[in-house]
Amino acid sequence: MLSIPPQQEPPDGGLQAWLVMIASFFCNGILFGTINSSGVIFAALKDDLEANGVENPASKASFCLSLTIGMTFLMSLVSGVLTDKLGVRLTTGIGGAIATAGLFISSLVYHKIEYLTISYGLLLGFGGSLAYTPSLVILGHYFRRRMGIVNGFVTAGSSLFTIVMPMLFEYILRLYSLKVLFQILAAIVSLLMVCAFIFKPRLAVRPREGALPGDAGAAASSRTLKNQFKKFVSQFINFEIWRNKRFVIWTLCIPIALFGYFVPYVHLVSKAMKNILTPSYVT
């Protein structure tokens, strides 16, 4: 939890604040531009798997890409805990390094869907998650009054990159191959580590109490295994917020709303190529 003494109020401006905003813009853009361009990669990967005689290429390719998307959001809990424990900078840097490594390894094993599922699906997704959460957390260190417009600018990065990156992907695939595409993506994603250096935290992190809310009077009797386990878990998870009904409803509704949200991003390009268009990267 963030403790904000009066002398550490967010500045709502200044060179460092605007640099943080731009870095967060690029984090969102790079991560979600890549995810939202999955349809182009899916079409190329499916054709490559078919050419290599892999059974059920569409299912295996879509599972690999869907795993990337799922890991990015599923690991947000881990990312939040690590952001509290390790800090914004280190968590973002580790995430960028893992995602970059995953993409570079993908360029070496793109013919092997089993390995690609690990490198692209798991490593890129996990690394992206570690970089994404801190890119939003850091905004609270520098902005309060202007948080609305800053959030809007940062999240617009995903929209802008989603427009540009599919065209870039198709251009690369038309001239080269998936191997080169993954290598170029690795170079782009490595910029997340540059963003990590810009994310200089300003606010102190207040450690959570070792006991659950309402357990202060039971401190003397907390030597049982059960209470010690609760104390340990409460260092990582804020149980108090789950007593807020509105938060619980919101938390449950968002995943439900997103359940089918990314399906078109993966399959729409292939569907269009099959029924309407000619794949530009094979012409």
TrEMBL record:
Transmembrane region(s): 15-42, 88-110, 122-143, 149-173, 180-199, 247-268
PANTHER family per the UniProt record, alphabetical: KARMOISIN, ISOFORM B, MONOCARBOXYLATE TRANSPORTER
Highest rank taxon of the organism: Eukaryota
Cellular location(s): Membrane
Keyword field contains Transmembrane helix: yes
Record has Membrane as a keyword: yes
Protein name: Major facilitator superfamily (MFS) profile domain-containing protein
Pfam families per the UniProt record, alphabetical: MFS_1
SUPFAM superfamilies: MFS general substrate transporter (SSF103473)
GO cellular component annotations of the record: membrane
Lineage: Eukaryota, Metazoa, Ecdysozoa, Arthropoda, Crustacea
Keyword terms, alphabetized: Membrane, Transmembrane, Transmembrane helix
Domain Major facilitator superfamily (MFS) profile: 17-283
Membrane topology, record value: Multi-pass membrane protein
GO molecular function, one term: transmembrane transporter activity
Chief localisation class: membrane
